[in-house]
Every structure is written in C-alpha cells, then in structure tokens.
Design goal:
single chain, 7 helices, 6 strands, alpha/beta, disordered N terminus, 268 residues
C-alpha cells in the first residue's frame, strides 16, 4: 500500500509539472498530425536534460559540469521547437534539480509523449576524441564503450511499458512485443534523423549511431533517443559546448531532426 501511494504521488507530481510546462511551451496553434498521432492533437515531445542537482554528470578538466551544458541546450531546443507551433513541448526539468530516471520516464509517459529526447554530454579518457553521438535502447550494447556509457548514465531503476492488465496473458504478450518492436524501429529512425541533420553542421563521433541499455530510454511505448552533444574532455569541444551560439546550432539541428522524424513517421 505504501509503494502504491508513493507511486501515485509521483505520477501526480509529474502531471502537475507537465501542466506548468505545457503552459510555458505549448504552441498557440496547431497543424494536423501524422497518422502515428491520434487525430485532434499535435505531437507531444518531451526533452530530458540529463543529470542535475547532486548529480553533475560528466565534468571537464576545467570543472565544467554536464548538467549545466545540457540544461541550457535543452532550453534552446525546447524554445526552437515550440516556436514551430506544430508541437507541444515539455522539459522533464527546468532547473538544477536531481531527477531519478524512473521519474523522468514517468513524467514523459504521464504527459503521453510521442517522443522522448534525452540530452547529455560526454567525457572520455582520450582527450583527442570529440563529436556528437546518438544512442537508442538495446539490452545488447553495440560496443564496449556504449555499454560503459550506459552504466555511467543509469542512476535508477524504472518500470516502463503499456498497461495490458485487462488482456489475456497470451494476447498481452503479443501486444507488448508488437509495441516494443514498433517503438524500437521508430527510435532507430529518430536516431538516424538526428545523425543526418546534425552531421551537416557539427562534428560526429566515429560510428555516431549506437545502442546500449539506457534506463531513461526504456518506455516501451515512447520512441526515445539519447544524444551525447559532444565531449567535455576535449578542450576545443568543451569551449564550444559553453557557447550559446553553438547551443543554438545544436538546437536547430535537433528541431530539423524532429520535423524530419514526424514527416517520415506520418508517411509510414
């Protein structure tokens, strides 16, 4: 009973946050959404700035915190996307606060997100390495580096997925599997659009599109991707990531990727 009450409070808190963020970012007018979105509403995009509060994330050699870089870039992205008036946009956090991964996904699902984009920055032992990369969810990592990154990013457990309690077990398993497959395919599509659009303007890591077991990407009914904006461990990229002009360039590229994703999704 205690766990149930705690979970209910968490969901209500998430709903209250979404209502406030909707007031901040929701566009005044809307255009028809694609076939993947229910008729009568525009796509809902949740932007998740990683880390925050007591969790600084990656720290550059000069003491630059990932949590600040990603929050500033996420704000730029949210403003740019909301200005298109074709989407409803919400941030999982708008201040320097710590949010468990369970809470981030709960907020996205409570707001009935059509897409979740988690924003991060990296720090690597090799200071020569730089560039943006994009990750999607998979229990099997694409490589050791991706697996290690997932471990470092995961801070809390979560339970995601669609509600199938009213379905017979066999039917529920089939529906859940179909949901997972569709979500996985759409997440890969989203990651591809990000790589294509951002690759035109910023440096990309080698093999920029990867996959690993990221807890924040495990909502089984929400297409999701995690973007590593660059490497704070690289001196040149550390300076770039702190510049608002560069953050705006990243934001505009992400907006183009989201628009391209929904255009492709509606054509499916």
């Amino acid at each position: 009973m205690r766990d149930r009450s705690y979970g209910r409070r968490r969901v209500l808190h998430g709903l209250a946050f979404c209502a406030v963020a909707r007031w901040r970012f929701e566009s005044a007018s809307a255009q028809p959404a694609g076939r993947g979105t229910p008729v009568g509403r525009v796509p809902r995009v949740v932007v998740d700035p990683g880390h925050g509060g007591v969790d600084p994330g990656a720290i550059s050699p000069n003491g630059v915190y990932e949590k600040g870089i990603v929050l500033a870039t996420a704000w730029e992205f949210a403003r740019e996307l909301a200005a298109r008036r074709n989407y409803r946009v919400v941030l999982t956090r708008t201040t320097d606060e710590f949010l468990p991964l369970r809470e981030r996904v709960a907020r996205a699902r409570a707001w009935k997100a059509d897409l979740l984009l988690s924003i991060h920055a990296d720090a690597l032992p090799d200071t020569e390495m730089r560039g943006l990369s994009v990750f999607t969810q998979s229990a099997q990592a694409s490589d050791r580096e991706a697996a290690a990154l997932a471990v470092s990013e995961n801070r809390a457990d979560l339970v995601g997925g669609v509600s199938l309690s009213h379905q017979p077990r066999d039917v529920g398993n089939i529906l859940l599997d179909l949901t997972r497959r569709q979500t996985s395919n759409l997440s890969v599509l989203l990651a591809n659009k990000i790589v294509v659009e951002l690759g035109r303007e910023v440096a990309l890591r080698g093999r920029p599109q990867r996959f690993a077991d990221f807890a924040v990407l495990t909502a089984q009914d929400v297409p999701s991707a995690l973007v590593e904006l660059g490497c704070l461990s690289n001196p040149a990229e550390e300076r770039l990531l702190q510049r608002r002009t560069y953050q705006q360039k990243l934001a505009r590229g992400l907006v183009r990727a989201v628009e391209s994703f929904f255009a492709a999704h509606s054509a499916m």
